[in-house]
Amino acid sequence: MRELSRAIRKLAMVPLAGFLALCLLCGWWQVVRAVRLQADPNNKRTLERPRRVIPGEVYSSDGELVLGAQEEHGKWVRTYPIAEAFCHLTGYNDRSGLTPGLLDALTGQGCYADPWDDLTYGRPVGCDVVLTINARAQRLATRLLRGQRGAVIALDAQTGAILCMASAPTYDPRNVTQSTELFEVFRNDPASPELFRPIQGLYPPGSVLTILTAAATLDAGIVKPDTNFTCGSVEWIAGSQVRCRHSNGYGQLSLTRALADSCNIAFAKLGQQLGPKRFADYVARFHLLDAPKLPFGEGVVQAGRMAEFVGDNAEAELVQTAFGQGKTLVTPYAIAVLTLAIAREGRQLAPYLIEEVHTKRGKVLKRGGATSLGQAVSRQAASDVAGMMVECVETGTGGRLAVQEVSVAGKTGSAQNPQGVPHAWATAFAPAQSPRVVVTVIVENAGAGGVVAAPIVQQVMALLLNK
Question: Interior CA angle at 195 toward 191 and 197, to 5°?
Fold first, then answer.
């Protein structure tokens, strides 16, 4: 009897070993090797997955649904709960906006794959994405830009999170692809509603670029805030004619007053003193022309372009660039990042847009954060420029940037352009002594930045500061 029991136990070990081997094999392929298998271009199930997956959704930092999904006739389709304010971020299909850059997360592929979720739900499940965008600020910025062409971008001065990224004109992503005719009308609209101006619009920076010129020359030891300049109404500097915005010129004025009142001639002279090589070096240190590292699809983000300081016209081009004119073009994002560096005592950050990615069960798979880009200028130089920007708000062209009971550091500008009326710029951070928020605005062909763009900065900043 005992020999029979031993024989039965030995015989039972064969299917048990086979069962364990099968479990290990399935675990190996379904769990350990799952990510690599899904990424294999020869895997037909990977190609089918986006059509079968329960897609993830996108939320604002304050919990509002930005990009949803619902099942219709056995197929999941996108919904746009805050269509106007978030259209450029959500896009109008899964090939525009943020979706291509977040496709793996929203469809639960690659490093976001979770085989156990697939088993639990009975089909592939995507992850949810939380943006750093504040929905209230995004709505306000969209409303303030309505009827105009322009952009608003706001940053958290402490973390580098993007709090607002609005573009105008907007569009309704629900209507764009309803028919070929509507799509053609949308794509050929002369107002370019598809253009995401914060990161795709390229503009002459105007006198908001004097923030960089001032910081560079202070850092290089060429000037101090109280260094005096002589400003006539029109001067020839390095073979280039420079006109002061004040018809009679300012006469004698300090660097602080030159920035507060946007004196072109003073900054043209500073550019000449700095020289092409050093100026280009500070542009690189501020990462002014870098394309932002944000999770958009290929070809969406835009890098700036600087004039070439070569040949006989090198200095002439430089003096124009030093006060924001010439051939240099930048994005609103770039000016916001420049302002952020001054707010952070010269420390440069690359802002971020994704707060976190988590599964439907709430497990956080990825958290976002800013990337340090090093020290652009000394703390003293940045502090001096910040003080000049406070003066600009309190006694200069930036009066409409002022927020009640808060010290604001800001700069306005009007950038000349060949297409007509100047572009209106304004950029600021607050509180000046302990910055929490940076806001940058451009309104195309709108004239004076201190009149048109500054009030938009002021209202968005006040909301984010809860004032």
Answer: 105
Do 381 and 215 touch, CB atoms closer than 8 A?
yes
Directed axis angle between helix 276-285 and helix 314-322, to 10°?
A: 40
Residue 151 and residue 124 in one domain = no
Residues shown for the chain = 467
Say if CB 398 and CB 454 are below 8 A apart.
Answer: yes
The rounded distance, in Å, linking the Cα atoms of 441 and 464 is: 15
- Give the separation between CA 454 and CA 443, rounded to whole angstroms: 10
Alpha-carbon torsion 153, 381, 450, 136, what sign?
A: positive
Inter-residue contact 422 to 415 (CB < 8 Å): yes
* Domain of residue 173, CATH code: 3.40.710.10
Q: Is 67 exposed, middle or buried (0-12, 13-18, 19+ CB in 10 A)?
A: buried
The pLDDT tens digits for 127-183 are: 899 999 999 999 999 999 999 999 999 999 999 999 999 999 999 988 888 888 888
Per-residue pLDDT reduced to its tens digit, 436-460: 999 999 999 888 888 999 999 999 9
Structural domain count of the chain: 2
Q: Which of 174, 188, 179, 165 is nearest to 98 (CA)?
A: 165
Dihedral angle sign, alpha carbons of residues 428, 431, 435, 439: negative
Are 104 and 164 found together in one domain? no
Task: Give the C-alpha separation, 264 to 245, whole Å.
Answer: 7
38/36 Cα distance (integer angstroms): 5
Tell me the whole-structure pTM to 2 decimals. Answer: 0.86
94 in the same domain as 216:
no
Helices 135-145 + 83-90 axis angle, to 10: 100
Q: Do residue 79 and residue 142 come from a single domain?
A: no
**192 belongs to a structural domain:** no
